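User: For my dataset I need records formatted as: sequence, then structure tokens, nothing else. Please produce one.
Assistant:
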Amino acid sequence: MGFGLVVRFVARDVTAAHAFDELAREALEGIRTKEPGTLVYVNHAVPDEPRVRVFYELYADREAFEEHERQPHVRRFLAERGQHLESFEVTFLDEIDGKGPSADRSGR
């Protein structure tokens, strides 16, 4: 069963938002190549809110999320993101049902 989260970040200013995007892009290189349990990891811009970014993350399970958190590229992102941010809020999600890269829910 999938385990996810949504994180809303507010950057200090637009320049900091772009620097934050670059930091996230660097982390994504490792996420794409070294984290098979990370199913979805997307940085979104919010229309009409140039300082806001929203991450949607979906993991195969809680263990895959914990493995993600231990990765050097993620630890670097977590250590350095604060310099660009005014605030952030994390919402954890437990999958109930749906369509996506997690296991087929149809039972077939």
